[in-house]
Write a structure and sequence with these properties.
The complex is a heterodimer of chains A (about 350) and B (about 375). Chain A is about 55% helix and about 5% strand. A four-stranded antiparallel sheet of chain A has the order 1-2-4-3. Chain A is mainly α and about 350 residues long. The longest helix of chain B is centred in the N-terminal third of the chain and has 23 residues, at about 1-25. Classes of the chains: A mainly alpha (about 350), B alpha+beta (about 375). Chains A and B meet through strand 2, helix 7, strand 3 and strand 4 of A and helix 5 and helix 6 of B. The complex binds iron/sulfur cluster (SF4) and zinc ion (ZN) (2 copies).
Chain lengths: ~350, ~375
């Protein structure tokens, strides 16, 4: 393979500049989407969106590059037309995870180092200004500057991203493909989100509009979880607030929320319902996880609510004066109730 | 009467500080991009003046000579508008700073040379006290006169820190600066460009790394599960960073699934393995002050300025091994004398000379007088020359 990216790559990474160039070179006009031969593209885009937004699964089907490029374009147009922030966020997250899947497999399976390097430079360097290099001693590993790593990793609250647990040497952090890609999830997410938000389409092709309206109707209005929030500790309130705004909560926050709700007597189903506004909600998985926390699955141990000190460390604490004297969120409000 | 003594002490120190800045103003070392920094001073009547800015070294020097502060500070941050309120300064990055202080080292000799001093009547206690038995005052100061063991331990810790910074963080020798703080510690300042933009959270992660905090068995590929533990060797291996340190210390000669499995079984399972890691990490981790490093808006003592807690100067240490704070950062006269009355019997050495003073009035060189009065262990009796 020469120094340019192959068409197969464009199919997987339709957001790259080269992909845009390709469409431009075909002198394609949006109105052409009204022609019958494009119907299957529009249908495929609808399917992709429904799959992600309604079923909550990553769409991994991969077609020939021209089909992919146009499907991607139509998906963005539809999302832009639907114009519902929570839906756009959810779609962006799933698209980011889709890209992640391809990237991880390309970075780990690709044997041709020139191609591997090219991919790294196109995606990481050009798109996200992140300097990633192949480790010269082990070409399954990637290295990046400690500060580039920290800027991203500190937004994840999970233990495993702490610098101390990482392979660090001479100013670099060494990561496997999986980890390297995971590190830019939010950047891919933001890229998707901004692409959709910034699209400026004066006249949406009729065929696309018909499909967009169909999807919009199918997207049941999100049922907001309403909990009387007066008696909740600030950390829990904050997490609920973020959930209601369809923000993506870190694992540690979900853990806190779920264990708290279970401890305060909510049923597994109630707790599962709580998470339905999360952009990556999947009922089956969430249910399994919550049951696990409740001690109904696997190890049979019931998990307790993390202590305030731990939550402080995880940046989940939003203590107010009412938190005085307590060491665990579960104690919140008890003293006042005497 | 008490007030009079304090006044006299202050006057004595003030005059000498004034003389120091007049004669040694060249010692004052401007930071990089000095016009983008915030400066602050402490005055002899304990006021803090912040948000100062100087575009030229000459202006700063003139200001110091005119005002004779008790302490001089400069921001680790670079600002667009250094004189504005903190949220409007326009933060443009900050040097990464480290503080290694005697208080954090917890050495066994501490007790031998630590003093608790009543802030009001200056009575000295040798044991930790919350209230002065002489005047019932509750503000008690803690002072220490580091011994040579202390200084050596501080130097060793500082050296370990610079090694960490070089080996793990890839910081070049020419991008960091080691200095004696002027009192009981050493400072390391890193101005390598790729670290300057890090926020407080990222710096806190670096602190955790250097201190050896929260290293988990999971990061070494050992997971806790219902059957005890599970091993999954990380693809990124054990040849770097803390993973390497642990593997070496535990003498794990071969990092295969089998070997690790046997090893962990032998030492008693997941929890024992975790305890072992914690122990090694706390041994090899360094004792730095986390608050200093995570602060990206701090004003930090300036190189070449005097530390009013000791009368010693903050000074760059180009050769840490040979550095002796009680000689190299003491800039006051030895050929003039002063009479002081000690608040407690004392044994110490300054400028290579040993002193063993009792509680009566003693005639000592000015350099010794400044040191003991700054430490609040002595009062001025009268001046003589
Ligand atoms: S102090 Fe505890 S209960 Fe209060 S906000 Fe923080 S974590 Fe929550
Ligand atoms: Zn007193
Ligand atoms: Zn000592």
């Amino acid at each position: 393979m020469s120094i340019i990216l192959g068409k197969d790559d464009l199919a997987k990474y339709p957001f790259l500049e080269e992909a845009g160039n390709y469409i431009r070179e075909t002198h394609f006009d949006l109105d052409e989407f009204n022609r019958s031969e494009f119907l299957h593209i529009i249908e495929r885009a609808s399917k992709r969106i429904e799959f992600e937004l309604i079923q909550g699964k990553v769409f991994i089907d991969l077609e020939k590059y021209d089909i992919e490029l146009f499907t991607f374009l139509v998906s963005l147009i539809i999302m832009n037309y639907i114009n519902e922030d929570s839906a756009i966020k959810k779609f962006s997250l799933f698209e980011a995870m889709r890209v992640e899947k391809f990237l991880v497999s390309d970075l780990s399976k690709e044997k041709d180092l020139t191609r591997k390097n090219l991919l790294i430079s196109k995606v990481f360097r050009d798109l996200f200004q992140l300097d990633v290099e192949l480790d010269p001693k082990n070409n399954h590993l990637f290295k990046m500057n400690i500060s580039d790593y920290l800027i991203r990793a500190t937004s994840f609250n999970e233990e495993e991203w702490k610098l101390i647990g990482r392979a660090v040497d001479n100013g670099y952090v060494y990561l496997d493909g999986d980890e390297t890609v995971r590190l830019i999830r939010y950047e891919i997410y933001n890229l998707m989100y901004n692409r959709i938000k910034n699209m400026n389409i004066t006249k949406i092709p009729e065929q696309i509009k018909i499909h967009a309206v169909l999807i919009k109707n199918k997207l049941a209005p999100a049922i907001r979880y309403s909990h009387t929030t007066t008696d909740l500790p600030p950390c829990i309130k904050k997490a609920l607030e973020l959930l209601n705004k369809n923000e993506n909560l870190p694992h540690s926050a979900r853990f806190m929320l779920a264990t708290y709700m279970l401890s305060s007597g909510k049923s597994v189903d109630d707790v599962v319902l709580l998470f339905q506004n999360a952009p990556d909600y999947n009922e089956k998985i969430t249910k399994y996880q919550v049951e696990h926390l409740a001690g109904k699955k696997g190890s049979q141990t019931k998990y307790s609510v993390p202590a305030c000190s731990k939550l402080v460390n995880e940046n989940l604490c939003y203590a107010t004066i009412d938190c005085r004297g307590i060491t665990n969120p579960i104690q919140f409000g008890r003293k006042n109730r005497k | 009467m008490k007030k009079e003594i304090t006044l006299k002490n202050n006057e004595f120190i003030f005059t000498l500080f004034k003389e120091y800045y007049f004669k040694n103003i060249e010692n004052l070392r401007p930071p990089l991009e000095m016009h983008n920094r915030e400066y602050g001073i402490m005055t002899f009547d304990s006021r803090v003046i912040r948000h100062l800015s100087f575009s030229k070294l000459g202006n700063l020097k003139a200001y110091i000579i005119q005002n004779v502060p008790s302490d001089i500070f400069c921001s680790n941050a670079y600002y667009q508008f250094p004189t504005f309120p903190i949220n409007e300064k326009g933060w443009k990055g900050a040097d990464m700073i480290f503080d290694i202080d005697l208080n954090d080292l917890l050495l066994p000799c501490q007790k031998e040379h630590t003093f608790y001093i009543c802030s009001n009547c200056h009575v000295v206690f040798r044991d930790l006290t919350k209230i002065c038995s002489a005047c019932q005052n509750t503000k008690i100061l803690k002072n220490t006169i580091p011994c040579f063991r202390c200084i050596n331990a501080l130097k060793k810790e500082t050296k370990n820190l610079t090694e960490f910074l070089k080996k793990d963080f890839g910081i070049k020798e020419e991008n960091m600066e080691v200095s004696f703080s002027g009192n009981t510690g050493f400072h390391v300042v890193v101005f390598q460009s790729n670290y300057l933009m890090l926020d407080s959270k990222a710096r806190s992660d670096i602190v955790g790394y250097i201190m050896g905090k929260n290293l988990s068995p999971e990061s070494l590929g050992v997971r806790n599960d219902k059957h005890g533990y599970r091993i999954k060797i990380p693809l990124s291996g054990y040849s770097y960073g803390w993973r390497k340190r642990i593997v070496q210390k535990m003498k794990i000669s071969e990092v295969s699934n089998d070997y690790l499995n046997k090893f962990i079984k032998k030492i008693g399972g997941y929890q024992s393995f975790k305890n072992e890691i914690d122990k090694i990490a706390s041994d090899l981790g360094l004792k730095i002050d986390p608050q200093v490093t995570t602060d990206i808006h701090r004003i930090f003592r300036m190189v070449g300025s005097l530390n009013s807690k000791s009368g010693l100067s903050k000074i760059i240490c180009n050769n840490l091994d040979k550095f002796d704070p009680m000689i190299d950062s003491c800039f006051f006269d030895d050929d003039k004398n002063v009479d002081i009355s000690l608040n407690t019997p004392l044994k110490f050495s300054i400028k290579g000379k040993k002193y063993n003073l009792d509680k009566s009035i003693s005639t000592v060189p000015v350099s010794v007088g400044v040191f003991l009065i700054s430490k609040k262990l002595a009062n001025i009796a009268s001046c003589s020359s």
